Amino acid sequence: MSSTSVTRPSDLRGHGFLFQQLVQRELRQKYQGSVLGLVWYLINPLLLLGSYYLMFGVVLKPIEHDDYPLFVMTAMVVWLLVSQTLPAAGDSLLSQSALLRKARFPREIIPTATVAVQAMTFLALLTIVAVITVPLRGTLDPALLLLPFVAALNILAVQGAALALSALHAHFRDVMPIVSAILVPWFFLTPIFYEPADLELRDAPHAAVVALEWGNPVAPFVEATRQILYYGHAPGLDLWAYMVAATGIALVGGWAIFRRLQRDLAVLL
Amino acid sequence: MSGGLEAGAIRLRDATRAFDVRIDSGRTLKEVLVGGLRRRSAPGGRDPRHPPPVQALRGVSLDIAPRETVAIVGRNGAGKSSTLRVLAGIVPLDSGSVEIGGRVAALLDLAAGFSRDFSGRENIVMGGALYGLSRREVEERMEAMVAFSELGDFVDLPLKTYSTGMLVRLAFAIVAELDADVLLIDEVLAVGDGAFQRKCEERIAQQVAGGSTLVLVSHDLALIERTCERTVLLDNGRVAADGPTADVLAEYRHVLEDASAPVRGSGAPAVPAGADADRQDSAS
Question: How far, in Å, are A51, A95, B95, B255 from residue B258 at the CA level?
Fold first, then answer.
């Protein structure tokens, strides 16, 4: 058996600075030379938030909820993390292939750096949303202390998916087109402009409500975040159990897939 | 790093490695699914449309002691670059094992790891990080690297303004200041101008005197005679000769005169240049 597994756990120690450099470079490269620079990282998602609100909160206005913009924003922030990170991370190994051919280092650093950049955007947005929502909704409640845990689980779950997608896309180039295609319907199936309980009011079959609530791995994260910020409740045990299990599966599965597929990255890319 | 091997020592055992020959390196799911079905149904178990993989290494064993200076020679496609990339840990083996003691610095592929939009200085930082240096280690070495490269004001300009020779200077300057235990160098020296080449050779000699091991792949026999005491001749993925440079080069010159032999030994069909294992990952 070969003893060059390219990465060994012992290699991870020496590469903290590489990780830091990749994060810095990604932050800078994207908007290098632009006047607003890093602010674009926030402007884009904020514009998305605003336009979705205009569309669904003002023009279409499907279901009555108090403070509807806040109802939407508290969920949207979670969706933005998922929908921005997966494509960026999925493409990361391909776009950094020059680094892979240069030296031996733990390959997972590359998608992880992409996730780290997106996670920073997410945390900044989440803070903005919380600062607006909590006073307006009066949800300054001990439950707010749970928000960092929900956010952490959320980021880790996305990290697991990002590891798997980046390695899969390096091997099979149609993985990312598939993901981009799925993101569109996925957005509407995620309870952002509504919550699963709304459908019950409209006499939807119970099975459909359950499927929306539990069949979509993003939904529980969306609901937990909204529960805390918008309703001021602690998420129920069922939500916690789901989030912990989903994060565990994503991390273990993503790691296993990455490990299996990373061997020939320098040759493939 | 591994197995408690002494810093600077290299042990390669029965290394084999094959490369799939594909015009387009990416696979799509459809190809995999359809290809998988076809493979199963085809007699002999192989998709007839795909050429067989190129066997770059067919059982290479090398023992290199710390402070040795070793050249690897051989005709195109003999497995020289594959050997270096295996030693660098970039390409894993199909079977066999590789162990290297200490920090490895590899100059294999000039374009690899450089970003054209970033300045020379920024690329030095990333280069150092890739080799596992910490921020402090990079900062300590920065001025020495800049000085070695002799790039002057260019070091603060983006790499897209550089000539190939200037890229070589930058790449070598990083490696020269790494204090690596093992130096793996593939030909790149040839691109610099004469004065810089001499400077690099002196630098390599200094590092060897300081305890580093050198493995050099080159077609420049004079360079090999100047820098390497030992030479390994590879032919068709196997070690054909291994010994003092003078003896092995004499044999190699013999091989070169017999120019009528096909590139990859007599058994395999000639491989198109684009698929040559030597150039598996030429600059992107």
Answer: 72, 43, 32, 5
